[in-house]
Amino acid sequence: MKKDGHVHTPYCPHGTTDSLEAYIEQAIQLHIDSITFTEHAPLPNTFHDPTPNQDSAIELETMEEYIEKIQLLKKAYKKEITINLGLEVDYIKEYEEETMSFLNTYGKYLDDSILSVHFLKLQDKYYCMDFDEHTFKHMIDQVGSLEKLHHIYYQEVLHSIQSDLGEYKPKRIGHITLANKFQKLFPVTFSVDQYIQTILFEIKNRGYELDYNVAGLRKEFCGETYPGSAVAKMAQEQKIPLIYGSDAHSARDVGKNYTCYQQLTNGN
Question: What are the angstrom distances between the C-alpha of 138 and each of 141, 146, 149?
Fold first, then answer.
C-alpha cells in the first residue's frame, strides 16, 4: 500500500493556498492509495508562538471547518483514495496538560496523527528550532555549543514519547532528526547514537511508529531525510514501522522523493 502519512493543507498559515482537492488529485496521479492530512494543530492557548509572524499552526477557531471539510472529501473520493483526518501535534515542554485537553476534545475525530518537537525552551524562552539558520545559530550561542543543543533537542523528543497526553496521543513520532536541518552550516562532528538508541527503544517499547520524512531533501542546508538512512536502518532492525511522509506544504510536494522510501524498504 502506497501511503503519504504527513501532508499539510491550505489551512497552514506558513504554507501555500493550494486546495485540499489539489493535494488529493496529486496523490491520485501518483497512484498513492492513502493520504493523511496532518495540519499543525493549534498551539496551547497560553503558549506564545515565538516565530516572527506567529504562523506556526492553525487557529483553534478553524478546527471545526478543517474537520468538516476533510470529512466531506473522504466521502467524495472514497472510490479513488483513502483519506485520513489527522494533525501534527506539537509536544511543548510544560504545556502537556493543555495539549491533552485539546486532544481530549478533538482526538475522537482523528484517524492518524503525528507528534513532533519544534519548540525548545532555552533560558526561560521558547524558540522554534527549525525556523531558520539564524535562529538556530542563536540557539547554539544560548546553550554554548551545537552538541549541547542536539542533546536538548533529543531529550525533548524522548520526553514527547514518554509524555502522558491521554488516550488520543499521536502514535507516530515526527522527523526525529530535525536538529540536522541546518547540518551543512553546522556539521555534526559528535555522536548522537546514544540518544537515538534510547529514542528508538522507547518508540519500540510503546508500539509507536516513526515518520520517515523526506522534507529534509528539499531543504537547502540539510540534504537528507529525517531520519537519515543510518537511523532509519536502526529502526528497521527493531521492526519499528517507518511511515513515508512528504511533509508537503504544497500540492506538488505530495509523494515527492518516494523512491527513497522504496529503496529503504526494499533493502537497497
Answer: 5, 10, 11
